[in-house]
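By convention, each integer encodes one residue's backbone shape. The lines below illustrate.
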Amino acid sequence: MDHAASASQHDDRLTVVPSRWRDLLALTKPGIIGGNLIATLGGYFLAAHGTFDWVTFSTVMLGIALVIASGCACNNVIDRDIDALMARTRHRPLAKGRISITQALGVSALLGVAGVVCLALGTNGLTVALAVIGWGVYVGVYSLYMKRHSEYGTLVGSLSGAMPPVVGYCAVTGQFDSGAFMLLVIFCLWQMPHSYAIAIFRYADYRRASIPVLPVVHGIKRAKHHILGYIVAFIPASLALVLASQAGTGYLCVALAMGGYWLYLALCGFRLGDDVRWAKKVFGVSILTITAMSLVMVLEAMVPMWA
């Protein structure tokens, strides 16, 4: 074998290894993990009330990240057929066959066990149970059945999507109290318009894959009414944290400003002609809203620590 051929094979191996790691990372949906970690931060600091424990904080953040990564990897296995039909997801590793089902399930199992062990060692039994329930709802109820068979799959999926901040909160308190319940309601209500907006601007993808989301089943106009209704419910639910003295003035201002703008944008959808552009704005503002609210929870809790 000449030196040129040897060098070429060596370069190929160097290319394949990083590519495999990128595929394994993509399997866990890092963007979803990042967004959920911000929500977990909010829940943790909301419950901390000026106190901080490095062990609890580190283990809940790492543990929930691993559990979410496990659920996402499992979801990729379940959705590999419909992912291949959708423009947004057709290049995913499993849809393209770059990773085998066995490998993906192995990664999912490893991450899930590591996450549960991490939470068990550094938090409490309730936190572990909530994380496992969130994983089970997302993988076992939503991904395996509801997503493909019912327009209410989005509602069921919102329960698992709302679990990370509750996990962060209960890691501190060790109990499911009114604060945990309010976080669950707030994040469930937030998930609905957020998800319906995605379904509107990805309407063609969902229809091609025969996924019965509300806009596909009942039309975009009805989905707009649902988006408006859920945002109307979300705003007072988010303010309940202030009324219960769980959050302060900074949170109140951010929740009112962001919620109010989100509501205004939802109302604009009934007079704008470009549904795709409108839905993308609703989606973008939904991300900004929940991120801002979560971060202000963190900032309000950190002020007493610095005082």
